[in-house]
Automatic annotation (TrEMBL):
InterPro entries named in the record: YjbR, YjbR-like_sf, YjbR/MT2646/Rv2570-like
Provenance organism: Cellulosilyticum lentocellum (strain ATCC 49066 / DSM 5427 / NCIMB 11756 / RHM5) (Clostridium lentocellum)
Gene3D superfamilies in alphabetical order: 3.90.1150.30
Protein name: MmcQ-like protein
Length: 120
């Protein structure tokens, strides 16, 4: 996988935890109990997609710009996007959209939950 830095990058964000959803074979990154990113693994446990949530207009725009960004793999195709782990999406753009997914999910949480996560 080209983006070897993702795990450390996401876990450095306040309030982030990760788990392995065995029945999906996904490594999920969560804020509270809400997923904002996932590394989807194939039957050999190798990354096949990195999935994250974006504003629908931005996701659509990025899909038009990069062949390696597709509608969400096994997710709502309007809000979720999947990126090929060995694709041509630049690291800085990947960090930017991971940040946006994190903030999008954070903004949907209650103010109380936001404070708990950000102070923890």
């Amino acid at each position: 996988m080209k983006y070897e830095w993702i795990d450390q990058y996401l876990l450095e964000k306040k309030g982030v935890t990760k788990d392995l959803k065995k029945e999906w074979n996904w490594i999920r990154y969560l804020l509270g109990d809400k997923m904002f990113a996932a590394i989807c693994l194939d039957e050999c446990d190798k990354p096949c997609y990195i999935t994250l949530k974006l504003d629908p207009l931005e996701g659509d725009f990025l899909r038009q710009q990069y062949a390696d960004i597709i509608p969400g793999y096994y997710m709502n195709k309007e809000h979720w996007n999947s990126i090929k782990p060995d694709g041509n999406v630049p690291d800085e753009l990947m960090k930017n959209i991971l940040d946006k997914s994190y903030h999008l999910i954070l903004s949907k949480l209650s103010k109380k939950k936001q404070q708990e996560l950000l102070q923890g």
